[in-house]
Design goal:
There is one protein chain. The chain is an alpha/beta fold. It is 20% helix and 34% strand. It folds into two domains: 155 residues, Immunoglobulin-like (Sandwich); 213 residues, Rossmann fold (3-Layer(aba) Sandwich). Helix 2 runs parallel beside helix 4. About 5% of the residues have low confidence.
Amino acid sequence: MLYIRFLKPPGIVRDHKDVFIKSLFAVTSDFGDQLCAQELSLVACLSAKTDGRIVLQTTLRWSPEIRCLPVVFDITGLSLPWPVRVCISPDSGTQSTQFAYRGGICDLPRILLAWSDVLDLHKGIKNAAKTVERRFRLGNGKTFSIWEDTGESIARHLWYVKSSAFHSFCSQSYSRDAGVALAAFLDFDWAVDDPKLPLLVEHLVKSAGKRLQVLELGCGCGIVGISLANIVPNCEVLLTDMPEAEEIVQKNIACTTPAERSALSFVALDWEKQLPEGIRERDVDLILVADCIYNPDSSPALVQTILALVSYSPRALLVLAVKFRHPSEKVFFKLMRDNGFVTEDHASLLSSGDDNDHDPEFVRIYLLRLGQPGVTQQSDA
């Protein structure tokens, strides 16, 4: 998948008598460590926040040799319907990223579009906040929004932080491939008659008889848990991460409307500390983990947190989504096996953002649980 990222959020700029709205963006991989290496035709729109009406529109061309693209709207002499926002998308008229099904396959989006925060000259907002909105359209037609931090690549920091400091950084409030893929897969498996992971759907339909209790570890901006709460009725989803993530997660919770009788909340959770009392008291049915194992230094603390959770909720099913980036990530699976966990089922989704990619990348989804007599261990490869 490819991500449109604002490197410089939109701002109002005066040049003598002329007035412009200017911004700078790039098209990158999920971690921002790789730029898009293909030709892309994109559309930038300036839209009214109140009704979504497009005021100005321009076509942009991304090519492999560039590192970023400017967006410039000349608003000299125009009476704009303030507040306004800038959207950059793969084509005109697209305002959300569609979770789609094709030939019985969960078809992951190729490019995740981006909406800036507002500009409002009447209120003195001349520079948009350093956050970006991504809109996702579920198979049932419902749309939900995920706000995330924006800016330059986090990749340069990736391997220089350890333990709880790394946990804090690895759960930065960005959308990433494994989280988006798991959100899309949950939507897909819930909707189809022949799910790829029947055991997962069996767990989800428990909500028909009792309220499904779900906990997400390292939720980042919260896309997985929030999507689940929009899909499955009668579920209670607790999003957890370091305290630094709370502001953006609470914003995302506030701007969504969960399915009937479903609810969302957030609790700060450090993997290197004891579980808070409010979490220990929960009988959790489902534990969600997406893109949290890419540094082996964080794996022992994560595994210990999972062990603590299942000591209070021994029947909990762990749903793990991972995009393997380095062989060292297998450390997590060894630690899980050493502590008695087995992989009960798994599925793979193609996540490569390049149609000509000869080395495609996959997001793999695993269902793990504490071993039971008669359960056969499956490969984690």
